[in-house]
Amino acid sequence: MSSSVAGVVSPTRQALRRVRRDRSARFGLVLVVVLIVVAAASPLLVKLSGQDAFTYHIDLLDPVRGNAPRGSFGGVSAEHWFGVEPLTGRDLFSIVVLGLRTSLVIAIVVTLVTTVIGTLLGITAAYVGGWFDAVLSRFLDFLFGFPQLVFMIALGIIVPTSVPRPLLLIGVLSFFGWAGLARLIRAQARSLVTREFVEAARSVGSSGWWVITRELLPNLLGPVLVIATLAIPGYIGAEAALSFLGVGVPPPTPSLGRSISDSIVWVYTGTDPWFMVFPGIALFTAVLGFTLLGDGVRDAFDVRLRRTH
Amino acid sequence: MPGLVWFVIRRLFSALLVMLALSLAVYLVFYAIPTDPALLACGKPCTPDRLEQARHFMQLDQSTMQQYLNFLKGIVAGRSYGEGAAVLHCDAPCFGYSFPLARPVSTLIADRFPVTASIALGAAVLWLVIGVSLGVLAALNRGRLLDRLAVGFALIGVSTPSFLFGLLAILVFGFWLNMVPVNGYVPLTESPVDWAWHLVTPWLVLAVLQASSYIRLTRAQMLEELNLDHITTARAKGAGERRVVVTHGLRGALVPIITLFGLDLGGLLGGAILTEKVFSMQGLGDLLIDSVGNLDVAVVVGVTLFAAFLVILANLVVDIVHGALDPRVSHG
């Protein structure tokens, strides 16, 4: 059987083939898979290391050096693979892998929520047009110019402590996150709305919902996938930033951003820079992996995402 | 240029409207706070009588809408809390009063703002310079080593959270090489040299990371621009390469760069807040985080509105520059 007939291979499959051929995208994909596996298996890994993220090991600290870990590389040993946290002696490996899981779970949930909301609203605005489109566009402009980080910090004052902070983080990041996606999808959808197949569907009396979900959405899956992948590293960074500022995931839940924040004083004094290095590398790898993969997916689908204003 | 003047007036007016709408929204949102700030001011033991007094003094017994109107009035005419001997005056423009800190919000912001502004402004200037010049160089040397380096640098830049990069810089330049101070802020008025010396690392940290997206954009725009007909014409007429690149190429690439800059202004403030924490400088972010912890709604509302005001103002400036550079904008 000949496979040379043009059009037999679907665009999605072609795109995936291109991702596989792109060296940096492949590297990104490997990183992402490793990160997700590590995060998913983190409780298992922690058990395997024979440690946990909460037990204090005061005996491993050196009181002379302000309770920095004894030994080199922040107290790396056969028991503590990444050494221990200064001041408490908690196992750093457990903190890093569990923190990675926290980061990824929040980032992925936010991506899912914003993708669904942004896609639906973006397509609807493009399809319906009129006042709905006008109001939505104004609102998007407003969200864009907004000093989001300031607002995210400030919200901490009105949300009761009974609301779990990870949930609040997901809510806040989603609230500001869907705007970018909605704007890009709206721009993409607008070029589709005037095409014949949409006209054809409307002329046979298809409902708006039908046209949006059955005609427009399948044609926009590529851009949606691209934008969603490119958005993940942003959310990983944002979650880490909020936790770094002390308004994100509260202790004792491990969080990369908070560990890095805790490490500031140990970096200033140079007593235990390794406390920053391990969570730092984990965070950097997570953002880099998803960025490389996102760039690769974008090139593969050949989507031009112009920032329009 | 009457077209441009009208454009500026229109923009000013809409910016004012947005600011008003925003202040109302922020006020309504933040006065839905579930904990009563008067409880903190009331002290222990807090009798119902004293609580009522505190609420009355802080004007929390009025409706939220009335409080908002008081707030607006305070900006124009100032306001005072309580009456008789215990009266507290907050002179116009009064943006609220912090009872836990016993200072007007505007004074608190004015104290802290120079720190955040110093970080943000210096970083913005540096990142535009680094981003645009590296982007132009990369475009001119397309495919060569310099181009690859710039693109690789841009990738690392987008993948590194600013606070992580800041800590690395402290570790390397402050601790190992012992070249720069690791933390602290010195006011410009005290010693301009020390001011700049303490800010060099934060500026570079923020600028280098942000510059990466400008390198990418400038490079792409320049590559596109340099292929256009008017460049070929300029070259054919014998214009020097430098003149072709700067006057003809960069001018066309500038508009999208300014657009991106306008979009990044909100992020610039956020970046400055993160950076001030990394370098232990007490700026607006520090004030805001402390106030959230203290349930100090007046300060939280004040800082949020002030931040929004800055972004709206900066966007206004960007829009006007945009309009002046590209007549299609101001006439559209």
TrEMBL record, chain A:
Keywords: Cell membrane, Membrane, Transmembrane, Transmembrane helix, Transport. It is a multi-pass membrane protein. Belongs to the binding-protein-dependent transport system permease family. It comes from Kribbella antibiotica. Residues 100-294 form the ABC transmembrane type-1 domain. This is ABC transporter permease. It is found in: Cell membrane. GO terms for cellular component: plasma membrane. The lineage of its organism: Bacteria, Bacillati, Actinomycetota, Actinomycetes, Propionibacteriales. CDD domains: TM_PBP2. It comes from the Bacteria. GO terms for biological process: transmembrane transport. Pfam families: BPD_transp_1, OppC_N. The chain crosses the membrane at residues 27-46, 104-128, 140-161, 167-185, 216-236, 274-297.
Automatic annotation (TrEMBL), chain B:
Pfam families: BPD_transp_1 (PF00528), BPD_transp_1_N (PF19300). InterPro entries: BPD_transp_1_N, MetI-like, MetI-like_sf. It is a multi-pass membrane protein. Residues 113-322 form the ABC transmembrane type-1 domain. Keywords: Cell membrane, Membrane, Transmembrane, Transmembrane helix, Transport. CDD domains: TM_PBP2 (cd06261). Coiled coil: none annotated. Gene3D superfamilies: MetI-like. It comes from the Bacteria. It is found in: Cell membrane. One of its GO terms (biological process) is transmembrane transport. One of its GO terms (cellular component) is plasma membrane. The chain crosses the membrane at residues 12-33, 119-140, 152-175, 195-215, 252-275, 295-318. Belongs to the binding-protein-dependent transport system permease family. This is ABC transporter permease. It comes from Kribbella antibiotica.
